[in-house]
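Quick start: what a row looks like.
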Amino acid sequence: MEKETYGMRAVVDWSAALWAGVISGTVFYLLNIFLVPFVNGGNSWTIIRYLASPVLGESILPPPAIFNIQSLIVSIICTLVLAIFFTVIVSYVLHRGGLILGIAGGALFGLALYFINFNTLTLIVPWLYALSSPVMMVTHIIFGILAGGLYETFEVEEYELQEN
């Protein structure tokens, strides 16, 4: 007769992942619409249109880059949905590592996400390559740092019984 053993396994705090995603996505969005034009030139509406263009198509991009409520709403929704999705991935992978691993692992994830976006996604949506720049790389790294760090900060440690 075999003896059954049990252990405890940490579980992901999905609420913490959601809020970390919303906050890190909001910071990412604001950094991109203000910092990218400041460093690279142009204006915020150009970036907003680029962020909306995977959904609205390339036709949203031609000048003039002025207020457009449709591109604003779509860009915010797309950014937040993707930010929550990517933060859930970071949270699932790093949730047992603590704050330092959350920050460091998040930074590496953000860097990887930048390279994936601009070396793979641009095969499908080629006009996005125009956004590729060192400042965009930095905003992706900041997103990752915030996603991992905020998740670890907000996480309420919970464990479930696991049969070994």
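That is the whole record. The longest helix spans residues 14-40. The helical segments are 14-40, 44-56, 69-94, 98-124, 134-154.
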